[in-house]
Amino acid sequence: MASRFYNPPTTCQVPNLSGKWEALFGKRRDGIFVEVGAYDGESYSNTSCLADVGWGGLYIEPVPEFAEKCRQRHAANHKVTVIEMAASDVAGEADLHIGDTLTTLSEAQVADYNQIGWAKGLHQGQSRKVATERLDVILGKAAIEPGFDLLVVDVEGLEAQVFAGFTIERWRPKVVLVELEDEHPDFRDNERVRAGAIGVRQKLEQAGYKIYYRDIINSVYVDGLVYKDLPAEHMTISPRVTVGVPTHNGQRTIARALESLAAQTFRDFRVVISENASTDHTASYIQNSASKFQDIQVIRQKNILTAGENFKAVMAQCSTEYFVWLADDDWWEPRFLEACVALLDSDAAGVTAFTDFRVYYHFIDRYSDRMGYVASSSHDPRLNILTRTVNMAPCAIYGVHRSHAIKAAIARLPDAFDFHDVAVTIEMAAKGQMLLSKQDLFRAGIVDEARLQRRSLDGNQIRYAPFARFLASVTRRTFGWKSALLLLPELLFQLYKVKRHNDKAHGQPSELNQASLRTRADVEAGFQPFPGASAGASSVPGLLEHIRSAADESGVDVNTVHLYNPATRDAWVADRAASVEAGLRVLDVGAGTAPYKHLFAHCTYETHDFAQYDGYKGPEGTYTEIDYVSDITAIPVPDNSYDVILCTEVLEHVPRPVEALAEMARIVKPGGRLFLSAPLGSGLHQEPYHFYGGYTDHWYRKFLDEFGCDVEAIEPNHGWFAHLAQECARFSWTFERHKHLHGDHGAALSELMGSTLARYFYVLDSKAFMREFTVGFHVTARKRLP
Questions:
Q1: Which pTM does this prediction carry?
Q2: Strand, helix or coil at 344?
Q3: Is the CB of residue 35 less than 8 Å from the CB of residue 147?
Q4: What is the pLDDT of residues 5-25, one digit of tens each?
């Protein structure tokens, strides 16, 4: 592939636009373009890449805020002009309906958008009066010369009106790119949209323009007088995403899967289909859909492969940055690829990106409630592996992956076994973060009721031993045997819980409660937290929708909320450890499993603990080897022995905490530091050794001063709203203990409390910080010199 001369934004919806422009215009820096409906001059733009190499141009944008962003985007190019105006078929004034990227003059278009799931909600009834003018007049006043290079028209349903005010025979732009959605699955049965698009196509063709490129969103026409022979498109760079579609006898569902792929707003992908020796009409459906994709490869298997082999067959053809599987019975909402790619582009530590999802039951055309996938986005791979094992949800295997990571994960798991797809997600979690968009964009298909009854790989009894062996293998490979033996007991305990649940359900066939499922109209109408509740005159449904929208738009991952307390503490300890000079002597008091040992690898690290607790001992599974076993008030070392004392989440378990603090002050050297943390408020844990509810900042200041130490810093671990978010999450953590109280609303209530409200309140914490209800303090103190 050649390098790019033109570099469109990642949101550009025309695949390989750089190659198209290079084929049509060459590597020019002196062209002229006109874009009608410019938005911000960057997002989804087909011309910003031209301006960036020196082209002159005219951006026409009626919304002042968007026009100003466009000016700022192209401020460095004095040959670019931005006009605040709406191009139409008449001069005057009109109502412009504001809806972000879907802003339009067409009230009918707004009504259509409000019936479509991916567009619903962008229009909130806001409109304003704007000036309109014929495009002929706008071009004349801007001194645009006839025969300019490129005209782009994207005005959300008013393209026909723009062309009605444009005399194409006079201006004859060499190339025209126009958004025409008469073949888009959401508009192809809409007579208004189809009539407008057909009218534009006829006008262009009658003027001697020829189609150069066409998909379900955009069409590129070229002047037949200029381009007598259509130039071959330059493949300037490989697509960024490979979409692998493995299928076998998928005639009932594959058309919908491929249709959803063709409707993606992110267009920089290629398609690889492995047709696995189907005996039905799957091949015909593929052939009928192939023309919708610019870059498609169809592999027709002569001999039938196993399902796993078929999945590998499409992945083997991937040479792009990202890879994603689209099963023939699943499908996506239009922004699925866009959302996932944006997550991975924004976070180099991410290896997989996924979204919220719903199960779609093909056989009854109904949807489940929205389901939230638990991300594993810690910087600690141990926590990520534990999260995946606790969650045991395989669906993220259908997320967008970094290709090198998913290929390596599959290579390490050559043989299929029960929970194999979960094992793949664990392999990925061991290598990086699995990110989550809270947009509701993935549809997991269930073809028939028989699939609901299949619990194991072969339809027989579930075999747990291979997965247990895998857990041992992945922890050993990732952390080494010593650390693996700390983590593995907790992972196996989680697997035991899954087995116990499955054994309890054995012989009880899954029953589908169709009354609880939703129609497409329900899904597009938005989330209803309490099925069957009537809005009436109450504002509660509107409030709940507001809260959910705010939570989703925040981009906060629910896993971040659930784990913020330990995650913030871990980050604080890591920061403190990095400030300790190499070779200094450190004592971890009440070390337990010594989770921070690795942070002090550059020091002489030693441990102390009471070492009599036999209950739950954290995700590492067991206590580490303790250097000093004693009461915390009588540690058997001389005065002034250590440069640093670390004591985290211990003091609430000590019968005499003031004496414990005095002992730590005794054994730290003058000028040495103490790093301390304990809850301010917590639920009962590690019973019966839980003696105090928490410690205030005043407690630390009073007693540290009495024992000859100066407080250097006391940092609250978030505030009241984050604490409230944690308690909302606790509703879901304890759900099994009270789910019988909530009737049919249990799942919705658990999602509302554990995800929506938790994320909503967590975001408020930074906007209205109230330290008096923090979950605890992180304290740095220094022993005074004599």
A1: 0.55
A2: helix
A3: no
A4: 898 887 788 888 888 999 999
